[in-house]
């Protein structure tokens, strides 16, 4: 894993559009700094334009290309709603790259993503140069609108689950994971998604004795390890999600009940 | 222009500028290595430190509010021993005065902490009295003059370093508290700590914060902080470190005019990690525009 | 949906909704005739009224601050006689309870005002105790329990109407003040009045406000107000009118959950003169979404 | 003078551009309400877009046409700087028309304007259907860039002063007013500009026994007469600039020393 010095840049918005019917947006930003070496799993702290919003918002780096980074986000509240209005060509302050990325050492990786947790898996898939498989889950077929095209040529096999069975296998990703693990010889699983999903996947991979990394979310103020907003207890003591994570070994973290 | 000086001295501590960092918002300085210029900082005030390591509060620890934020970190820290043995040797290299913000749950703990921190690497201690006094029913030390005074006296008795008292704004009469602090022998006054506040999630019908209430900081509190600095300036002659919502040089200048001898930047560090450098540059520029050469030329100059 | 009811009763006053207007921010109601729907308002609380007409403070009277504003209007008002003789007959037509916010400079003045306002056109009096007690060195009545209690007793003795005490947030222990108010016989509690603050013009080196300091209101103070409502709710059983930074239905709901029986909208009236109607609609919608029918279903329901 | 019910409208920005080198902007807004009857001298309370700015900003109605109003403003601080960024097509909330306008009863009106005080005189000049003269003053010729073209065809005679003499007569408007009053038979003077200018003009017109109206500025919160931010003492007692003004008889007001 390469460690980067942090940058703070007034990025220029190159592309900004709704890519998912379910209020999912893609933001392509020129940060005027080489982004190629950013690790998959790292994130940025984005300052919502226009000044009303005080704190930065943490968003995963979904892709990089030269001096450009791609962020993919869903409208959640005030900050993301305001962000969605930012025009192409306007500026957005970006602090990054933050945290530690996924550990790439493995031969047969399986990526497991749910909802917006799928976003950081895009860069991860690219880092595995088409050698990874992905298992992704959403509520229904409609919500698969944005990840499907993005992952088309960057993974080997794609497994899809929808809660209502309207696309792929019916049910949650974790329900289908044991079978997928049994039928393939993965040596590492990378999960990003709702906490309950990561918790279940962690349990299953532990049972299968397969290495597993999870990417956690916690409310953040600084993103730099200074404010202690994002501390979690781990088997290795207290850790900061922003600095020691967001990626952790699944065996290291305690998932809340 | 090259003669403009931001250098100052506060309670005997020589400082390259009157710009400090507020406790709990700048880690131990290391986290801001890529952004801050330590030669422009007057002092680094490190995270609230206690005798024993503390893991802090459970659940959500911050909430954004209009022009502000609430926090209930709950004094998570590695404990004074780790600070002395591991952290302080590491941050010595910044060549910047280190002030340790300390919290106790009894008067004696403040004395003990002050004593342990009476070491070369530490320029001063700052007493955080916004924490509950466990022996006296959990009321914060800092909202009642008597317990605040005993804390100050306990610290003063146990250290040769300057003792800075950090006042809580959650009081009826801040000037009275400042006078009590002066009487008890404090060497300087920091203000304000956070205002007690709360946020509620209308979907879950639960408090947003794990600890139910938290401390409000950021631009929202600036008018209250400024008013308190001004009231305290009129009441005591101790040096004042003003803070509360300082986001830029203009805000800092307001505090200087109101009577602050130095300022501390808190929440703004989260928004713009290089903000202290920008404030330094902004102060130089302002003095230049006003044809002034020394930051002391504006301190306390409010015409009111 | 049509069964949703926002009707309520507070200290015996029947109200069409728990949405009131905060004193000093809604004039006498007339100014908002084009925007407000008086049938959706629980009560109009009119501008702070004194025995004699007052011209208020000189100089600049308001200053904008981050997510808030400072004011030092200085209780400009035409005096209680003009209110009774000229204004109250005019605003009767709104068919909306009128609560008169009163201020005195002595305990006796509060009694006299309460007595004069014990008339049909007035539903209740609200005691503003954030004004200086001239006999006791100019300290506000509302930051010290004894003088606040005498003011409440003086008012209670002189009127048959409910007496609402409006608490100042500039105190160390708001719950203690609320308990004192209950003991003194208040019928309801309004909170919060404004937080004392200040703004400085860095070009002129003078305070922005003519009166140097002023009262902070608006979204910036909401976290403090909510915390105080919650603390007071736990301390007393009197009805609470919550206010401080309410800008929309979500904010109002936070106050209801924290324990407010009604809310008052202040600064928001300046920003959106039809805001009380919007909040009414928003509350109805929220109850509908939650499958609730009565505003009382959410009051005090915070799970903390 | 016609009294209007107030409206509160999400206006649509039709035109928004810098018209003066000295940071003067023109904002043309469709308020979807007939604006033709708004009185010259009335103003609106404009909500600065984007939510960071709490209070509305008072701006004079400089012109009307159908359901459109024109505002002309100078960058002063946070609010106007933020306003200047509002894009054509975007929305801006407008509360108006506020206050009382100028009293039009007169035969030979002279308008006297300084700086941005010239803005409301534009609609006033139009109300006088080309029959008014105007005396306008600015610091220098450069600052005359925006008023000159605007007033070109709406007044009879134009007198110009600049502080430095770079255009028209050198000096302040008030210095040249006595001569202008002596050489013409004006029966009413309307002044809008810096307080010191209005004060001096008021004194001169009083000496000449000519009626004079001034338009005052005070910090405002509500604009509706409710908050008492804007109270002034007058010879007729306390008045609210937002409701009883901003236009007052010059003999009625006390100018601060
Ligand atoms: C390391 C990390 C990476 C993330 N990557 C992505 C991503 O790639 N795409 C994406 O859509 N979302 C991502 N999130 C979640 C994203 O940060 C939140 O959706 C966003 O902050 C919501 O902001 P808001 O103002 O719209 O919501 P509001 O609810 O109004 O925000 C209020 C406060 O809560 C915080 N908050 C709300 N939800 C979350 C959350 N899930 N995690 C952390 N803080 C939260 C906000 O930052 C803000 O401080 C990530 C979170 C973390 C911690
Ligand atoms: C009735 C009236 C009509 C006006 N018409 C015009 C006009 O047509 N064109 C124009 O350019 N300006 C006009 N002004 C002045 C204009 O309101 C201010 O320039 C503007 O409010 C400045 O806002 P800001 O946020 O940029 O400045 P800031 O200084 O950041 O504003 C801070 C606060 O002070 C207030 N304020 C600042 N200057 C003034 C002022 N001169 N008068 C009143 N309040 C002020 C603001 O409204 C705000 O509340 C008028 C003022 C009034 C009262
Ligand atoms: C996340 C956070 C943690 C803080 N921790 C401490 C602390 O440990 N000790 C202390 O005295 N003050 C602490 N404070 C208060 C700040 O030092 C400062 O007094 C306050 O935030 C006001 O300044 P600001 O508005 O610039 O942030 C903390 C503030 C924040 C936001
Ligand atoms: C301009 C202004 C005038 C006020 N005048 C009074 C008053 O006369 N009496 C009083 O008790 N409170 C007065 N207040 C306080 C408000 O009633 C209210 O308590 C406070 O503003 C908090 O609510 P808000 O944040 O919704 O404005 C005034 C507030 C403002 C902004
Ligand atoms: S967000 Fe500040 S320490 Fe992690
Ligand atoms: S601005 Fe509120 S009364 Fe004039």
TrEMBL record, chains A, D:
<dbReference type="InterPro" id="IPR037117">
    <property type="entry name" value="Dihydroorotate_DH_ele_sf"/>
</dbReference>
<dbReference type="InterPro" id="IPR039261">
    <property type="entry name" value="FNR_nucleotide-bd"/>
</dbReference>
<feature type="binding site">
    <location>
        <begin position="72"/>
        <end position="74"/>
    </location>
    <ligand>
        <name>FAD</name>
    </ligand>
</feature>
<dbReference type="Pfam" id="PF10418">
    <property type="entry name" value="DHODB_Fe-S_bind"/>
</dbReference>
<keyword id="KW-0249">Electron transport</keyword>
<dbReference type="InterPro" id="IPR017938">
    <property type="entry name" value="Riboflavin_synthase-like_b-brl"/>
</dbReference>
<dbReference type="GO" id="GO:0044205">
    <property type="term" value="P:'de novo' UMP biosynthetic process"/>
</dbReference>
<dbReference type="InterPro" id="IPR023455">
    <property type="entry name" value="Dihydroorotate_DHASE_ETsu"/>
</dbReference>
<comment type="pathway">
    <text>Pyrimidine metabolism; UMP biosynthesis via de novo pathway; orotate from (S)-dihydroorotate (NAD(+) route): step 1/1.</text>
</comment>
<feature type="binding site">
    <location>
        <position position="222"/>
    </location>
    <ligand>
        <name>[2Fe-2S] cluster</name>
    </ligand>
</feature>
<comment type="similarity">
    <text>Belongs to the PyrK family.</text>
</comment>
<feature type="binding site">
    <location>
        <position position="227"/>
    </location>
    <ligand>
        <name>[2Fe-2S] cluster</name>
    </ligand>
</feature>
<keyword id="KW-0411">Iron-sulfur</keyword>
<keyword id="KW-0408">Iron</keyword>
<dbReference type="GO" id="GO:0046872">
    <property type="term" value="F:metal ion binding"/>
</dbReference>
<dbReference type="GO" id="GO:0051537">
    <property type="term" value="F:2 iron, 2 sulfur cluster binding"/>
</dbReference>
<keyword id="KW-0274">FAD</keyword>
<dbReference type="GO" id="GO:0016491">
    <property type="term" value="F:oxidoreductase activity"/>
</dbReference>
<feature type="domain" description="FAD-binding FR-type">
    <location>
        <begin position="6"/>
        <end position="104"/>
    </location>
</feature>
<feature type="binding site">
    <location>
        <begin position="57"/>
        <end position="60"/>
    </location>
    <ligand>
        <name>FAD</name>
    </ligand>
</feature>
<dbReference type="GO" id="GO:0009055">
    <property type="term" value="F:electron transfer activity"/>
</dbReference>
<keyword id="KW-0479">Metal-binding</keyword>
Automatic annotation (TrEMBL), chains B, C:
<feature type="binding site">
    <location>
        <begin position="71"/>
        <end position="75"/>
    </location>
    <ligand>
        <name>substrate</name>
    </ligand>
</feature>
<keyword id="KW-0963">Cytoplasm</keyword>
<dbReference type="GO" id="GO:0006207">
    <property type="term" value="P:'de novo' pyrimidine nucleobase biosynthetic process"/>
</dbReference>
<dbReference type="InterPro" id="IPR012135">
    <property type="entry name" value="Dihydroorotate_DH_1_2"/>
</dbReference>
<dbReference type="InterPro" id="IPR049622">
    <property type="entry name" value="Dihydroorotate_DH_I"/>
</dbReference>
<dbReference type="InterPro" id="IPR033888">
    <property type="entry name" value="DHOD_1B"/>
</dbReference>
<feature type="binding site">
    <location>
        <position position="192"/>
    </location>
    <ligand>
        <name>FMN</name>
    </ligand>
</feature>
<dbReference type="GO" id="GO:0005737">
    <property type="term" value="C:cytoplasm"/>
</dbReference>
<comment type="pathway">
    <text>Pyrimidine metabolism; UMP biosynthesis via de novo pathway.</text>
</comment>
<dbReference type="InterPro" id="IPR001295">
    <property type="entry name" value="Dihydroorotate_DH_CS"/>
</dbReference>
<feature type="binding site">
    <location>
        <position position="128"/>
    </location>
    <ligand>
        <name>FMN</name>
    </ligand>
</feature>
<dbReference type="InterPro" id="IPR050074">
    <property type="entry name" value="DHO_dehydrogenase"/>
</dbReference>
<comment type="function">
    <text>Catalyzes the conversion of dihydroorotate to orotate.</text>
</comment>
<feature type="binding site">
    <location>
        <begin position="47"/>
        <end position="48"/>
    </location>
    <ligand>
        <name>FMN</name>
    </ligand>
</feature>
<feature type="binding site">
    <location>
        <position position="218"/>
    </location>
    <ligand>
        <name>FMN</name>
    </ligand>
</feature>
<feature type="active site" description="Nucleophile">
    <location>
        <position position="131"/>
    </location>
</feature>
<dbReference type="InterPro" id="IPR024920">
    <property type="entry name" value="Dihydroorotate_DH_1"/>
</dbReference>
<feature type="binding site">
    <location>
        <position position="47"/>
    </location>
    <ligand>
        <name>substrate</name>
    </ligand>
</feature>
<feature type="domain" description="Dihydroorotate dehydrogenase catalytic">
    <location>
        <begin position="6"/>
        <end position="287"/>
    </location>
</feature>
<dbReference type="GO" id="GO:0044205">
    <property type="term" value="P:'de novo' UMP biosynthetic process"/>
</dbReference>
<dbReference type="Pfam" id="PF01180">
    <property type="entry name" value="DHO_dh"/>
</dbReference>
<comment type="similarity">
    <text>Belongs to the dihydroorotate dehydrogenase family. Type 1 subfamily.</text>
</comment>
